Amino acid sequence: MAVKRKAAPTQPVAPMPGKGDASTSHALSLAAFPGALAAIVLEILSARALLSSEPSAFTVLGFHFVALLCAVPALRQVFPEEYRRLNWTFAALVIGFALPLPVIGPLFLVGYRLLLLMKPARNIESKYILGTTQYLTLARHELDEAEEPRSVAEILNGKDNVARRSAILALRAVEPKKALPLLQKAIQDSDQQVRLLAQTQFNHIIASLEGRVTTLEAELATPPRHLNKLLLLAEQYHELVYLGLATDGTQTIYLGRAIELLEEAARSAPDNTSVRFLLVKCALKSGQLDKARACIQFLRKKGWQAEVLGPWEAEIAFIERDWELLSTTLRKLDADGAAAGVLRGPVEFWLQPAKG
Where are the beta strands (DSSP E) in 84-157? Predict the structure, then answer.
Protein backbone atom coordinates (compact mmCIF):
# COMPACT_ATOMS: atom_id res chain seq x y z
CA MET A 1 0.00 0.00 0.00
CA ALA A 2 1.91 3.04 -1.22
CA VAL A 3 0.94 6.09 0.79
CA LYS A 4 1.79 9.51 -0.56
CA ARG A 5 1.29 12.72 1.29
CA LYS A 6 1.14 15.92 -0.65
CA ALA A 7 0.05 19.34 0.41
CA ALA A 8 -2.75 20.67 -1.74
CA PRO A 9 -1.57 23.71 -3.66
CA THR A 10 -3.56 26.83 -3.12
CA GLN A 11 -4.79 29.31 -5.68
CA PRO A 12 -5.27 32.98 -4.71
CA VAL A 13 -8.77 34.33 -5.11
CA ALA A 14 -9.35 37.94 -6.14
CA PRO A 15 -11.47 39.83 -3.60
CA MET A 16 -14.93 40.84 -4.73
CA PRO A 17 -15.32 44.60 -5.24
CA GLY A 18 -17.37 46.34 -2.60
CA LYS A 19 -20.28 48.73 -3.12
CA GLY A 20 -17.98 51.73 -2.64
CA ASP A 21 -15.62 50.51 -5.38
CA ALA A 22 -18.53 49.95 -7.78
CA SER A 23 -20.04 53.40 -7.18
CA THR A 24 -16.65 55.09 -7.62
CA SER A 25 -16.05 53.22 -10.87
CA HIS A 26 -19.53 54.19 -12.12
CA ALA A 27 -18.93 57.84 -11.27
CA LEU A 28 -15.62 57.81 -13.14
CA SER A 29 -17.31 56.27 -16.18
CA LEU A 30 -19.93 59.05 -16.25
CA ALA A 31 -17.25 61.72 -15.92
CA ALA A 32 -14.98 60.28 -18.61
CA PHE A 33 -16.56 61.87 -21.73
CA PRO A 34 -17.21 65.41 -20.40
CA GLY A 35 -13.83 65.30 -18.66
CA ALA A 36 -12.12 64.42 -21.95
CA LEU A 37 -13.88 67.31 -23.74
CA ALA A 38 -12.93 69.73 -20.97
CA ALA A 39 -9.32 68.51 -21.12
CA ILE A 40 -9.13 69.10 -24.87
CA VAL A 41 -10.52 72.64 -24.52
CA LEU A 42 -8.13 73.46 -21.68
CA GLU A 43 -5.13 72.09 -23.59
CA ILE A 44 -6.11 74.27 -26.57
CA LEU A 45 -6.24 77.28 -24.25
CA SER A 46 -2.84 76.26 -22.83
CA ALA A 47 -1.42 76.09 -26.37
CA ARG A 48 -2.87 79.52 -27.27
CA ALA A 49 -1.39 81.03 -24.12
CA LEU A 50 1.97 79.45 -24.97
CA LEU A 51 1.92 80.83 -28.53
CA SER A 52 0.74 84.29 -27.56
CA SER A 53 2.98 87.33 -27.90
CA GLU A 54 3.55 87.49 -24.13
CA PRO A 55 3.22 83.92 -22.83
CA SER A 56 2.74 83.49 -19.08
CA ALA A 57 4.18 80.33 -17.53
CA PHE A 58 1.54 80.46 -14.78
CA THR A 59 -1.32 80.60 -17.31
CA VAL A 60 0.12 77.91 -19.60
CA LEU A 61 0.87 75.45 -16.80
CA GLY A 62 -2.37 76.29 -14.99
CA PHE A 63 -4.53 75.38 -17.99
CA HIS A 64 -2.38 72.29 -18.58
CA PHE A 65 -2.61 71.07 -14.98
CA VAL A 66 -6.39 71.52 -14.81
CA ALA A 67 -6.69 69.72 -18.17
CA LEU A 68 -4.86 66.71 -16.77
CA LEU A 69 -7.16 66.62 -13.74
CA CYS A 70 -10.20 66.65 -16.05
CA ALA A 71 -8.68 63.89 -18.20
CA VAL A 72 -8.10 61.45 -15.33
CA PRO A 73 -11.53 59.70 -15.57
CA ALA A 74 -11.10 59.19 -19.32
CA LEU A 75 -7.54 57.94 -18.93
CA ARG A 76 -8.62 55.42 -16.29
CA GLN A 77 -11.17 54.09 -18.76
CA VAL A 78 -8.79 53.62 -21.69
CA PHE A 79 -5.75 52.14 -19.89
CA PRO A 80 -5.65 48.42 -19.02
CA GLU A 81 -6.56 47.27 -15.51
CA GLU A 82 -2.98 46.38 -14.57
CA TYR A 83 -2.01 50.05 -15.09
CA ARG A 84 -4.87 51.55 -13.09
CA ARG A 85 -5.10 48.94 -10.32
CA LEU A 86 -2.59 50.83 -8.13
CA ASN A 87 -3.33 54.52 -7.84
CA TRP A 88 0.28 55.53 -7.29
CA THR A 89 1.43 53.61 -10.36
CA PHE A 90 -1.25 55.22 -12.51
CA ALA A 91 -0.43 58.68 -11.14
CA ALA A 92 3.26 58.17 -11.89
CA LEU A 93 2.40 57.15 -15.46
CA VAL A 94 0.30 60.28 -16.08
CA ILE A 95 2.75 62.62 -14.37
CA GLY A 96 5.78 61.10 -16.08
CA PHE A 97 4.38 61.29 -19.62
CA ALA A 98 1.96 64.21 -19.62
CA LEU A 99 2.81 66.75 -16.91
CA PRO A 100 6.23 68.04 -18.09
CA LEU A 101 5.04 69.40 -21.48
CA PRO A 102 1.72 71.09 -22.28
CA VAL A 103 -0.08 69.62 -25.31
CA ILE A 104 2.90 67.44 -26.27
CA GLY A 105 2.83 65.53 -22.96
CA PRO A 106 -0.75 64.25 -23.37
CA LEU A 107 0.09 63.28 -26.96
CA PHE A 108 2.99 61.17 -25.64
CA LEU A 109 0.56 59.51 -23.22
CA VAL A 110 -1.89 58.72 -26.04
CA GLY A 111 0.96 57.38 -28.16
CA TYR A 112 2.05 55.08 -25.32
CA ARG A 113 -1.50 53.70 -25.06
CA LEU A 114 -1.47 52.97 -28.80
CA LEU A 115 1.84 51.11 -28.43
CA LEU A 116 0.23 48.89 -25.80
CA LEU A 117 -2.48 47.96 -28.30
CA MET A 118 0.10 46.98 -30.92
CA LYS A 119 2.42 45.08 -28.53
CA PRO A 120 2.38 41.35 -29.41
CA ALA A 121 1.71 38.76 -26.71
CA ARG A 122 4.84 37.11 -25.32
CA ASN A 123 5.59 34.38 -22.81
CA ILE A 124 2.70 32.06 -23.59
CA GLU A 125 3.00 30.32 -20.24
CA SER A 126 2.33 33.61 -18.41
CA LYS A 127 -1.32 33.37 -19.55
CA TYR A 128 -1.80 30.22 -17.53
CA ILE A 129 -1.73 29.41 -13.83
CA LEU A 130 -1.64 26.14 -11.92
CA GLY A 131 -4.93 25.54 -10.13
CA THR A 132 -5.91 23.36 -7.19
CA THR A 133 -6.49 20.24 -9.32
CA GLN A 134 -3.76 20.69 -11.90
CA TYR A 135 -5.84 23.14 -13.90
CA LEU A 136 -4.14 25.63 -16.15
CA THR A 137 -6.66 28.47 -16.31
CA LEU A 138 -6.47 31.88 -17.85
CA ALA A 139 -4.67 34.14 -15.38
CA ARG A 140 -7.28 36.87 -15.08
CA HIS A 141 -9.22 38.11 -12.09
CA GLU A 142 -12.46 37.61 -13.99
CA LEU A 143 -13.08 35.22 -16.87
CA ASP A 144 -14.82 36.47 -19.96
CA GLU A 145 -18.37 35.20 -20.40
CA ALA A 146 -17.33 32.81 -23.17
CA GLU A 147 -14.34 31.41 -21.26
CA GLU A 148 -14.25 28.50 -18.84
CA PRO A 149 -11.30 26.97 -16.99
CA ARG A 150 -10.06 23.77 -18.66
CA SER A 151 -7.60 21.23 -17.36
CA VAL A 152 -4.52 20.46 -19.42
CA ALA A 153 -5.67 16.85 -19.71
CA GLU A 154 -8.95 18.09 -21.18
CA ILE A 155 -7.11 20.32 -23.64
CA LEU A 156 -4.81 17.48 -24.71
CA ASN A 157 -7.84 15.26 -25.29
CA GLY A 158 -9.52 17.95 -27.40
CA LYS A 159 -9.41 18.51 -31.15
CA ASP A 160 -7.96 22.04 -31.12
CA ASN A 161 -4.34 21.66 -32.25
CA VAL A 162 -3.47 25.26 -31.43
CA ALA A 163 -4.83 24.93 -27.89
CA ARG A 164 -2.86 21.72 -27.36
CA ARG A 165 0.34 23.39 -28.52
CA SER A 166 -0.26 26.36 -26.23
CA ALA A 167 -0.91 24.04 -23.29
CA ILE A 168 2.40 22.25 -23.87
CA LEU A 169 4.25 25.58 -24.01
CA ALA A 170 2.51 26.67 -20.82
CA LEU A 171 3.90 23.61 -19.02
CA ARG A 172 7.31 25.29 -19.13
CA ALA A 173 6.19 27.21 -16.04
CA VAL A 174 5.12 24.06 -14.14
CA GLU A 175 7.45 22.06 -11.92
CA PRO A 176 8.73 18.84 -13.57
CA LYS A 177 6.94 16.35 -11.30
CA LYS A 178 3.58 17.77 -12.43
CA ALA A 179 4.51 18.46 -16.05
CA LEU A 180 6.17 15.13 -16.94
CA PRO A 181 3.02 12.92 -16.90
CA LEU A 182 1.26 15.37 -19.22
CA LEU A 183 4.28 15.61 -21.51
CA GLN A 184 4.49 11.80 -21.71
CA LYS A 185 0.86 11.76 -22.81
CA ALA A 186 1.43 14.54 -25.34
CA ILE A 187 4.34 12.66 -26.92
CA GLN A 188 1.70 10.26 -28.28
CA ASP A 189 -0.42 13.10 -29.72
CA SER A 190 -1.77 12.91 -33.27
CA ASP A 191 -0.41 16.36 -34.13
CA GLN A 192 3.24 16.33 -35.15
CA GLN A 193 3.97 19.78 -33.72
CA VAL A 194 2.43 18.86 -30.35
CA ARG A 195 4.57 15.70 -30.29
CA LEU A 196 7.69 17.68 -31.16
CA LEU A 197 7.05 20.35 -28.52
CA ALA A 198 6.32 17.73 -25.85
CA GLN A 199 9.34 15.60 -26.72
CA THR A 200 11.65 18.63 -26.75
CA GLN A 201 10.42 19.82 -23.37
CA PHE A 202 10.55 16.29 -21.94
CA ASN A 203 14.16 15.87 -23.12
CA HIS A 204 15.05 19.26 -21.66
CA ILE A 205 13.76 18.25 -18.22
CA ILE A 206 15.61 14.92 -18.35
CA ALA A 207 18.84 16.62 -19.46
CA SER A 208 18.48 19.19 -16.67
CA LEU A 209 18.02 16.53 -13.98
CA GLU A 210 20.83 14.33 -15.27
CA GLY A 211 23.12 17.36 -15.71
CA ARG A 212 22.51 18.33 -12.11
CA VAL A 213 23.46 14.81 -11.00
CA THR A 214 26.67 14.88 -13.07
CA THR A 215 27.66 18.28 -11.69
CA LEU A 216 27.09 17.25 -8.08
CA GLU A 217 28.98 13.98 -8.54
CA ALA A 218 31.94 15.92 -9.92
CA GLU A 219 31.84 18.34 -6.98
CA LEU A 220 31.79 15.46 -4.49
CA ALA A 221 34.70 13.73 -6.20
CA THR A 222 37.11 16.03 -4.39
CA PRO A 223 37.02 16.59 -0.61
CA PRO A 224 35.59 18.05 1.49
CA ARG A 225 32.23 16.32 0.97
CA HIS A 226 29.75 18.75 2.46
CA LEU A 227 26.52 17.52 4.06
CA ASN A 228 24.31 19.77 1.92
CA LYS A 229 25.76 18.42 -1.32
CA LEU A 230 25.42 14.81 -0.15
CA LEU A 231 21.76 15.41 0.69
CA LEU A 232 21.10 17.33 -2.53
CA LEU A 233 22.62 14.63 -4.73
CA ALA A 234 20.62 11.92 -2.92
CA GLU A 235 17.47 13.98 -3.53
CA GLN A 236 18.29 14.17 -7.24
CA TYR A 237 18.63 10.39 -7.49
CA HIS A 238 15.38 9.91 -5.58
CA GLU A 239 13.67 12.44 -7.85
CA LEU A 240 14.67 10.48 -10.98
CA VAL A 241 13.04 7.38 -9.49
CA TYR A 242 10.00 9.22 -8.11
CA LEU A 243 9.26 10.83 -11.49
CA GLY A 244 9.36 7.44 -13.23
CA LEU A 245 12.43 8.31 -15.28
CA ALA A 246 14.41 5.21 -14.28
CA THR A 247 14.14 1.72 -15.73
CA ASP A 248 14.07 -1.33 -13.45
CA GLY A 249 17.83 -1.63 -13.76
CA THR A 250 18.71 2.03 -13.27
CA GLN A 251 16.21 2.38 -10.44
CA THR A 252 18.20 -0.09 -8.34
CA ILE A 253 21.40 1.81 -9.13
CA TYR A 254 19.91 5.23 -8.37
CA LEU A 255 18.36 4.12 -5.07
CA GLY A 256 21.53 2.31 -4.02
CA ARG A 257 23.60 5.41 -4.70
CA ALA A 258 21.10 7.62 -2.85
CA ILE A 259 21.16 5.33 0.20
CA GLU A 260 24.97 5.28 0.14
CA LEU A 261 25.07 9.09 0.12
CA LEU A 262 22.48 9.38 2.88
CA GLU A 263 24.27 6.92 5.12
CA GLU A 264 27.46 8.95 4.70
CA ALA A 265 25.50 12.11 5.52
CA ALA A 266 23.99 10.40 8.60
CA ARG A 267 27.48 9.55 9.86
CA SER A 268 28.64 13.14 9.50
CA ALA A 269 25.43 14.59 11.01
CA PRO A 270 23.92 11.95 13.34
CA ASP A 271 21.08 14.19 14.56
CA ASN A 272 19.95 15.47 11.17
CA THR A 273 16.31 14.42 10.65
CA SER A 274 16.13 15.55 6.99
CA VAL A 275 18.65 12.83 6.11
CA ARG A 276 16.55 10.17 7.87
CA PHE A 277 13.31 11.25 6.21
CA LEU A 278 14.77 10.84 2.73
CA LEU A 279 16.48 7.62 3.78
CA VAL A 280 13.10 6.16 4.81
CA LYS A 281 11.67 6.93 1.37
CA CYS A 282 14.63 5.44 -0.50
CA ALA A 283 14.78 2.36 1.74
CA LEU A 284 11.05 1.67 1.29
CA LYS A 285 11.29 2.11 -2.48
CA SER A 286 14.24 -0.27 -2.68
CA GLY A 287 12.65 -2.84 -0.34
CA GLN A 288 15.18 -2.41 2.50
CA LEU A 289 12.55 -2.55 5.24
CA ASP A 290 14.89 -3.06 8.20
CA LYS A 291 16.72 0.13 7.27
CA ALA A 292 13.42 1.97 6.95
CA ARG A 293 12.30 0.72 10.39
CA ALA A 294 15.54 1.89 11.96
CA CYS A 295 15.05 5.39 10.53
CA ILE A 296 11.43 5.50 11.70
CA GLN A 297 12.53 4.50 15.20
CA PHE A 298 15.18 7.25 15.16
CA LEU A 299 12.59 9.84 14.11
CA ARG A 300 10.20 8.66 16.84
CA LYS A 301 12.91 9.24 19.45
CA LYS A 302 13.35 12.72 18.04
CA GLY A 303 9.72 13.46 18.82
CA TRP A 304 7.95 12.92 15.51
CA GLN A 305 4.36 11.80 16.01
CA ALA A 306 2.23 9.02 14.53
CA GLU A 307 0.59 11.34 11.99
CA VAL A 308 3.99 11.57 10.25
CA LEU A 309 5.44 8.10 10.91
CA GLY A 310 2.24 6.01 10.94
CA PRO A 311 1.70 5.95 7.15
CA TRP A 312 5.23 4.60 6.62
CA GLU A 313 4.68 1.91 9.27
CA ALA A 314 1.43 0.97 7.56
CA GLU A 315 3.25 0.74 4.23
CA ILE A 316 5.86 -1.60 5.73
CA ALA A 317 3.10 -3.79 7.16
CA PHE A 318 1.39 -3.91 3.77
CA ILE A 319 4.62 -4.83 1.93
CA GLU A 320 5.21 -7.66 4.41
CA ARG A 321 1.54 -8.75 4.15
CA ASP A 322 1.19 -8.39 7.92
CA TRP A 323 -2.54 -7.64 7.89
CA GLU A 324 -2.90 -7.64 11.67
CA LEU A 325 -0.17 -5.01 12.09
CA LEU A 326 -1.59 -3.02 9.19
CA SER A 327 -5.03 -3.00 10.79
CA THR A 328 -3.59 -2.03 14.18
CA THR A 329 -1.55 0.82 12.72
CA LEU A 330 -4.44 2.23 10.70
CA ARG A 331 -6.85 1.89 13.62
CA LYS A 332 -4.46 3.84 15.83
CA LEU A 333 -4.19 6.58 13.21
CA ASP A 334 -7.97 6.70 12.95
CA ALA A 335 -8.50 6.79 16.72
CA ASP A 336 -5.95 9.56 17.24
CA GLY A 337 -7.35 11.58 14.34
CA ALA A 338 -3.84 11.59 12.89
CA ALA A 339 -4.79 10.28 9.45
CA ALA A 340 -4.28 12.94 6.79
CA GLY A 341 -7.11 13.66 4.37
CA VAL A 342 -5.44 11.69 1.60
CA LEU A 343 -5.44 8.61 3.88
CA ARG A 344 -9.14 8.67 4.73
CA GLY A 345 -10.06 6.45 1.79
CA PRO A 346 -7.48 3.69 2.52
CA VAL A 347 -8.24 3.81 6.26
CA GLU A 348 -11.98 3.41 5.72
CA PHE A 349 -11.39 0.60 3.22
CA TRP A 350 -9.13 -1.44 5.48
CA LEU A 351 -11.08 -0.86 8.67
CA GLN A 352 -14.59 -1.42 7.37
CA PRO A 353 -16.18 -4.58 8.80
CA ALA A 354 -16.04 -7.61 6.56
CA LYS A 355 -19.32 -8.51 4.92
CA GLY A 356 -20.46 -12.08 5.27
Answer: 128-130, 135-138, 150-151
